[in-house]
Amino acid sequence: MSARGAGAAVNDYDAIVIGAGPAGSAAAILLARAGWSVALVEKQAFPRRKVCGECIAASNLPLLEGLGLGAALAETAGPELRRMALLHGAHAVLAELPAAADGRYGWGRALGRETLDTLLVAQARRAGATVLQPCAVVAIDGAAGHWRCSVRDAAAGARTLTSRVAIAAHGSWETLPSGRDQRRRRRGDAELFAFKANFRNAALEPGCLPVLALDGGYGGMVVADAGIATLACCVRRDRLRALRAGAAGHAAGEVVEAWLRSQIAGVGAALQGAARDGPWLASGPIDPGIRLRAGDQLLRIGNAAGEAHPILGEGISMAVQSAGLLCAQLLGPSDRGRPGDGAWHADSARRYAAQWRRQFAPRLALAAAFAHVAMRPVASAALVSIARRWPGLLTRGARWGGKVRSAAEPDRYRLLGEVP
Fold first, then answer.
1. Which of 95, 204, 283, 419 has the largest count of CB atoms under 10 Å?
2. 374: part of which helix (H) or strand (E)?
3. What's the whole-model pTM score?
């Protein structure tokens, strides 16, 4: 498949990508540099802060370098993440994080999403993608080879885009119009809501990644770019309801911060003397699980494909790497049919779904198990006791969680993402 000629309609594309986070922008870069005409649709203006733990595992750094972000990451990202800590009440267990095989990128870094997403969408523009931002998707319908996507933005108003391929790369709680009624019906005490705030002058060890085990939630802290610390957590609906009932008149973020300070000694110590930089952000309910299906007509990457409990900090990893897995199929050998037709699409979707499940389903299972242990006081106390005796188990857990191994091939990113 190649780019449209000079006389082609400006609203007709080879691919429409919905969402310009790490997954969507990475896919747009790879497809555009391979000669596809790509529309990248994002409803929010950048830069913007977003609820996210902001950790970039070492396994992603070669991929991001291939997309053209190597120099920017080296200059702006936070310190190398070489240690982790498990915090529960007054207890803390330290362990080494595993080093990746790539000697240039042995350890992960942290970078605010306001910076990472802006860098990636700029690279998508340089690659030749048409970026529509801020621009909302009103409706999408059709099937493989014949998609119609209705969008609306302040500058151009309403219009309809057509494409051969459509890729969903939106957040899990930012469902497309067709899925909103189902989301509204889902309610339950066990649903998790995500919170995040940034702090300046926090007394948090650079290069250390604390994980928080809470009664009814879990969280993490990290020092990212410019020395700004991120504190993020997920809280069960019933726990959040009880906290707010005991602090009438206070905003949810303020209540959550007070809870974190009181429950985890390490959080209180880190934030003593720190100043919050901006408001608390909240989103959710989050929706861990697999949404990808082998027969999908609308191709899915990032959280639109599936979401792990954020306790392992694998959101950015699964976003960038799933984009690579999908594009490897879309840009694969031409002997599987004509790009854009039904047989080619079905084969690509099936192959991608199989690879996605093989690479990411174990991470989802491990994250779910860890999250449910962390949210239960008796179980998390037992985990802390075991980790004290064998801290190497935490190191192994980080390795099993995908911190040092990429599902996508770095060489493909370097080839297709090479900056001219």
1. 204
2. helix 342-374
3. 0.92
pLDDT at 89 over 60: yes
* Helix/strand number for the chain, H first, E second: 13, 19
Structure confidence at residue 5 (pLDDT): 40
Q: Please answer whether residues 270 and 202 qualify as being in contact, where contact means their C-beta atoms are separated by less than 8 angstroms.
A: yes
What CA–CA distance (Å, rounded) separates 22 from 116? 8
Q: Are 357 and 363 in contact (CB under 8 A)?
A: no
State the angle between helix axes of 22-33 and 315-330 in degrees (0 to 180), rounded to the nearest 10. 30
Do residues 30 and 170 make contact, with C-beta atoms less than 8 angstroms apart? no
Q: Which helix (H) or strand (E) holds 355?
A: helix 342-374
Residue ranges and CATH numbers for the domains of the chain are: 12-181+287-417 (3.50.50.60)
**Average pLDDT value for residue range 75-89:** 96
- Which residues have a Cβ under 8 Å from the Cβ of 22 and sit 6 or more positions away? 116, 117, 120, 302, 316, 319, 320, 323
**pLDDT score of 188:** 87
Closest among 100, 98, 27, 86 to 58, alpha carbons compared: 100
Of 288 and 405, the structure prediction assigns the larger pLDDT to: 288
Q: What angle do CA 78, 79, 80 make, to 5 degrees?
A: 120
pLDDT-derived band of residue 332, with 50, 70 and 90 as boundaries? Answer: confident
Distance of alpha carbon 23 from alpha carbon 46, whole angstroms: 15
DSSP letter assigned to residue 279? -
